[in-house]
């Protein structure tokens, strides 16, 4: 016998365990392996070399809670990104614009050291650090990606409108994001991506 979902949806207690890379109480999980990320990094030879050494563990994963769907519903989750690099680019998420582009997102840094790379379709770019105890509040209409610029796992708690959706193709069609987040001595810097064609002219 099938049962209807409860209305209103039941409250959920979540326990993000950043150092264990998991969140208790969620109902969703996905993982991205190096092999899923072909074309993301500029240095193809460095990517192939990294793939040949790959230990088969995910580069990043997301554990989330979506207790209800529809307008006004929220998805909350833990995003975990390993430390590392391909060529001089730090490990990063694929990045996306929300399909409902006016939907914003909140990230709260739990552990590790990251940068949120934020770009508008009009051509503005911002790289905002996210360290433990810092939040980044991303309004709608920003293409966004997280980058781990530290030496340990980056774990962030996030929240966005469930109906936001994700458009990954906008970055692929543009030849990647406008800026790259790269090693700079012991730190990080941004450098223009020579392959970027602009988000509007695609
Ligand atoms: O969806 P992407 O771009 O692969 O990256 C995963 C990211 O997406 C989110 O799950 C939600 O926007 C982030 O928390 C996470 O860092």
TrEMBL record:
Pathway: Carbohydrate degradation; glycolysis; D-glyceraldehyde 3-phosphate and glycerone phosphate from D-glucose: step 2/4. SUPFAM superfamilies: RmlC-like cupins. The keyword Isomerase applies. It catalyses: alpha-D-glucose 6-phosphate = beta-D-fructose 6-phosphate. Pfam families: GPI. It is an enzyme of class 5 (isomerase). Coiled coil: none annotated. InterPro entries: G6P_isomerase_prok, RmlC-like_jellyroll, RmlC_Cupin_sf. The keyword Chaperone does not apply. Residues 35-191 form the Glucose-6-phosphate isomerase prokaryote domain. GO terms for molecular function: isomerase activity. Its EC number is 5.3.1.9. Keywords: Gluconeogenesis, Glycolysis, Isomerase. Belongs to the archaeal-type GPI family. This is glucose-6-phosphate isomerase. It comes from Streptosporangium fragile. The lineage of its organism: Bacteria, Bacillati, Actinomycetota, Actinomycetes, Streptosporangiales.
């Amino acid at each position: 016998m099938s049962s209807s979902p409860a209305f209103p949806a039941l409250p959920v207690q979540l326990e993000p365990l950043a150092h264990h890379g998991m969140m208790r109480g969620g109902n969703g999980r996905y993982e991205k392996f190096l092999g899923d990320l072909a074309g993301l990094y500029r240095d193809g030879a460095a990517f192939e070399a990294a793939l040949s050494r790959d230990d088969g563990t995910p580069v990043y994963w997301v554990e989330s809670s979506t207790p209800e769907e529809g307008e006004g519903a929220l998805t909350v989750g833990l995003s975990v990104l390993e430390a590392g690099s391909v060529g001089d680019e730090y490990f990063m998420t694929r990045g996306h614009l929300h399909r409902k582009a006016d939907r914003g997102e909140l990230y709260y840094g739990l552990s590790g050291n990251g940068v949120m790379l934020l770009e508008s379709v009009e051509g503005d770019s911002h790289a905002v650090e996210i360290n433990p105890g810092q939040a980044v509040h991303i309004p709608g209409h920003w293409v966004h990606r997280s980058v781990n610029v530290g030496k340990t796992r980056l774990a962030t708690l996030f929240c966005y409108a469930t109906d936001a959706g994700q458009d990954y193709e906008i970055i692929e069609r543009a030849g990647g994001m406008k800026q790259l987040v790269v090693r700079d001595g012991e730190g990080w810097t941004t450098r223009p991506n020579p392959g970027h064609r602009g988000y509007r002219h695609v």
